[in-house]
Structures
1.
Amino acid sequence: MFGGVGLLILLLDQITKALALTHLTPGEPVNVIGSLLKFNLIRNPGAAFSLGTGYTPYISAVQITVAIGVVYLSRRLGSAGWAVAFGLLFGGAVGNIIDRIFREPSAFHGHVVDFLQTPHWAIFNVADMAVTSAAILLVIQTLRGVKLDGTREQRR
C-alpha cells in the first residue's frame, strides 16, 4: 500500500505539473471554481509560502533525508493508516525533490512548479497537498494510539 500510494502521488504530481507548464502562463490566473480555486502558475524557489528562497539546496537535502527515512521506516509498517500516510509523504517529497534537482535554474537550486491557488493561501501543487495530508494522517494515527506495526498502545 505504501508503494502504491507513493507512486500514485508522484505520478499525479508530475503529470499535473507538466499540464500546468503546457497550458498555463505565469501571471495569468485562470478561475476554475469562481474565486475559490484558480490555476496560477508560479515557480517557487523556496519552501512553503516561498520562505527560505536562499536555502534551496538545504531544503532539497532535508526532503531527500525525509524520503530515505520514510522508505527505511516503511519496512516496519503494519497499519494501513500509516502506510497511506507514509505513501503520501514519500510521493509528495519525491515530487518536489524532482523539481529541485531537475528544473531551472540548476541542480539542487531548481524551482518547484506550483499552480493551485485558493483564497488567502499560498499557491501549491499536488505534492504539497500530499505532504499536508500525510501530516494530518500521522497526527490522527498517533492520537488513536496506533503504532507503526499496527498494534495499539495500551491506555490506562
2.
Amino acid sequence: MNAAELLWLLARDAFWSGLAALGFAVLFNVPRGLLPGCVLAGAAGHATRTLLMSAGLSIELSTLFAATLVGVAAQWLSRRTDSPTAIFGVAGAIPMVPGVYAYQTMIGLLGVASATPETGIALLAEAGTYAVKTALILSAIAMGIAAPTLLFQRPRPVN
C-alpha cells in the first residue's frame, strides 16, 4: 500500500469512526459543546489503530496503543473543558469495540449446537479463538483508557 492509499484509508477511517463516536456521545446525552472533543477522540483512536495494524502490529496491541491515545486525549480534553474524563474516553473508545469478533463467537457457539461431533469440535475451537480475541481487545481498551488516568491524576493531599 502506497502513501496516498494509506492516507485515504486513514481519512475515511477517521471520518467514520468520528461519526460513530459522535452518535454514541449524542446517545449518552453529552453536552453539545463537548461533542467535538468526543469526535476527535474517536477519530484519532480508531485511525491510530488502523495505522498500526497496517504497519503490521496485531489488532490487540494496536488497540492498546490507540486506547492509550484516547485516554491521553480524554485527560487533556477534560482538563481543557473542566468536564469528566469518562465523557471523552468512553465515546472515543466505542468505535474500537470488537463487534465482528463477538458476533463470530456467538455464531460459532450457535453452530456447535446443531453440528455433528466431528465438526462441532472445530466450530468450538474457532468460537473459542474469537472469544479470546474479543476478550483481549476489550481488555486492551480498558487498560489503555485507564492507564493515563492512573499515571497522570494524583490524589489531592488531605489537610
3.
Amino acid sequence: MTYTASAPLLPRSDDSHFTEWRRTLDWGLVAGIALLAAIGLLMSLAVSPSAAERARIGEPYYFLFRQVLHVSLGLGLMLMISLLDRTWARRFGIVIFLGALLLMCLMPLFGHRVNGAQSWFRLGGISMQPSELIKPGLIILSAWLLSQRERYPSPAWAGAAFGFFAVTLGLFLIQPDVGGAALLSMAFLLSFYISGMPKRWVIGFGAGGAALAVMLYSALPYVQTRVNTVFSPSSVTDRYQMDMTELAIARGGLMGTGPGEGQIKIAIPEAHNDFIFAVIAEEFGLVAIVAVIAIFGLISIRGFRAAARIEDGFARTAAAGLFSLFAVQAAINIGVNLGIVPPTGLPLPFISYGGSAMIGMGLTLGLALALVRGEGTRSRGPYG
C-alpha cells in the first residue's frame, strides 16, 4: 500500500508569515550561530567542575546546566525576534534602547558592583546587565536617525544620533565599563560611516575617540594597568592571568592536551568566561582555535554581505552595525586571549558562560537576521 500526500507540507502558494519567514531567513547564519553555541556547551562541560569547585558549589555541573538555560533563552530569543519585519524590528530596537537607557541611569543608585564595575542589577538569584541590551538598541536608533537624512536633509539627524551615543558612552564610563565603551564606539563608528556620512566626520569622530582613550589611560589606574599588561609588560607586577593564558596556548600545541586535561581552567577564576578561548586552545589545540576563528569570520562576512545588498538605508546601516557588534566583540576577546589586546572583560559570543551576554547577543543577531531576511537567499531565488 502506497501513500500519496495530497499536498506539500509547505506549498509555494502558502503566503503565511511563518512560511515567508522560513523561506527568507538566512539559515546559513543560524547554523553557524548554533554551532558556536554547541561549542560553548561543550566547553561548559569541560570547565564546569573546576568553576563550581572554585565557587564552592556542590553540584559539579552547575555552570553547564545554567549555560544550557542561557543558550536556550538566547537562541530562542534570536529566532523569535527574527520573525519581525523591518518596521517592527526598528520599533522593538528603539523600545529596548529606551528601557535599557532608563535602567542604566538608575545603575549608580541601585546597581550591584562586580569586579570593580557597577554594571549589574540583582534581584534575588537573578542578575541582569542592561549594557548588553543598550548596545544593539543604540545601533538601531542611530541607524534610523541617520537614515532620516535621505528624506529630510539636515545635519541635525547626525547630531541627534551622536547625542544619544555620547549619553550612552557616558553611562558606560560611569560604571566604569571601558571595554564595553570601546566596543560600542567601534560599532557606532562603522554605522556612522556606512550611513554615508562624510569622511571628515568619521575622521573627527575617530580623533575624538583617540583623545578620550588617552584621557582614560591617564586618569584611571586600572586602565593603565590593563594597557601596560600588553604594551609594557615589564612595568606591570601582576600578569598572572595573561601569563597563564599564553602558557595554556603554548601547551595546547597543534592538537591540544585532550578534553579535560587542561590546567588553565583550574589556575584562573574567569576561565569559563573571559578566557574560554584559551581553554579551547589548551585542550583542543591550534586546529580547534583556527576552526573557531573561521566560524566567527564566516558568520561575520556572510552577515556583512547580506547587509550590503539591502537597498533601504536604515536596514543596511543597522544590520552592518549589529554584525559589527558581534564581529568586533569576538575579535577583542580572541585578541585578549592571544595577548595582543588589553583585557576588557568582553565574553566570546555564544561560547563564554553568561546569561546577560547570551541574551544580549541573541537580541543583537535576532535583530540583524530580521533586517537581512531575504538578502542572504537572493542569489538562490525567492524561495531559498
